[in-house]
Design brief:
Distance between the termini: 82 Å
Number of strands: 27
Structural class: mainly beta
Oligomer: single chain
Length: 336
């Protein structure tokens, strides 16, 4: 009888492992990947507007801010004359106004995303590194108290100049301060749920970094590596990034055809999602329940250098079993 009991327990344990393994495989395959827009070029910087339920993103070299309405499938754009547009974000308490980086300018754009506009109202707020050849802003994001973190880079003759950019913090007084210097390509930024950690990508290093973060002061310290994607055997480079409510990072691998989910506590890769295009550029959670992961892609680095003609579309990843946080909006001093 004792032997029979042991045998039954062994069979049950084995069956449980089979079921667990089966469920794990099912979860890996359960997500759906849907192309939701046509091809654009170099699409980047997705930002979900919880009020209008639209996804904003940019087309860098076309100098467009774009809006995508999932309810209608419509995409509209506004042309920003100041220069290449690298990020867009909403402004706290100001519906119909967007903050964008264009060239080395930070501008306030009046546009509701409901039509194409070749000449929207644009107000220059500040400029950085003015007059420096080849310099422009790249990626950025707003922290929990409404400050913009945005980084610069330099490109001359369609080549990236290493370690000359900076990551800035810009508060409502529009007084930019350098937080990280000697940056090559400033890209994905995020914060942990408790705002104790700041995550940052300098793309050509192949690494995602973490810093201790103090929210009130904006101070960062204790730089460390979360993951080196080359050491993990991935092709491509880390680009845009977001975080889910489980505290894990979703990192786009440009030139790598992949999106990876990483535990920032130990650098473990939890999930890998393949894409039908090489240039996976950035990610943002959206949708009514913030459970859709929107992914931007590109067809080129520069307009004269097509890498993947199928790239440049926006994808929606659904049924991932995770959610994101509502994005922060920039807090602008009312005098502006």
């Amino acid at each position: 009888m004792h032997l029979t009991f042991i045998l039954c327990m062994f069979i049950q344990l084995c069956w449980t492992k089979i079921i667990d393994k089966s469920n794990t495989n099912y979860l890996k395959k359960s997500h759906s990947l849907e192309q939701v827009t046509s091809t654009f070029g170099l699409s980047e910087g997705p930002h979900w507007d919880v009020h209008s339920q639209k996804l904003y993103f940019v087309q860098i070299w076309k100098q467009h801010i774009c809006s995508y309405n999932p309810a209608t499938g419509e995409v509209f754009y506004a042309f920003i004359k100041n220069g290449p547009v690298s990020l867009v974000t909403t402004v706290e308490g100001e519906p119909g106004k967007l903050l964008a980086t264009s060239g080395t300018d930070i501008v306030l754009v009046t546009w509701n995303g409901e039509n194409n506009d070749e000449n929207p109202e644009i107000k220059l707020l500040i400029s950085v590194e003015k007059g420096k050849k080849g310099f422009r802003f790249n990626d950025g994001k707003v922290d929990a108290i409404g400050r913009l973190w945005a980084g610069t880079m330099c490109q001359i003759d369609e080549k990236n100049i290493p370690e000359v950019g900076s990551l800035y913090i810009i508060d409502e007084k529009l007084d930019p301060k350098v937080k990280i210097s000697s940056v090559s390509i400033s890209n994905g930024l995020e914060w942990s749920k408790d705002n104790k950690n700041f995550y940052f990508i300098d793309t050509t290093t192949n690494k995602v970094f973490a810093y201790d973060f103090d929210l009130p002061s904006g101070n960062i310290s204790n730089k460390r590596i979360i993951i080196d994607v080359k050491e993990k055997g991935f092709q491509g480079f880390p680009d845009g990034m977001t975080i889910d409510t489980d505290g894990n990072l979703w990192i786009a691998l440009v030139h790598g055809s992949k999106l990876i989910r990483v535990d920032p506590e130990n650098g473990k890769v939890l999930k890998v999602i393949d894409f039908p295009t090489k240039m996976v550029t950035s990610v943002a959670f959206g949708g009514v329940d913030l459970d859709i992961l929107y992914v931007t892609t590109a067809s080129y680095d520069f307009p004269t250098k097509i890498i993947d003609a199928k790239g440049g579309t926006i994808f929606a990843l659904k049924n991932l079993g995770v959610k994101g946080y509502p994005p922060n909006s920039f807090k602008l001093n009312k005098q502006f």
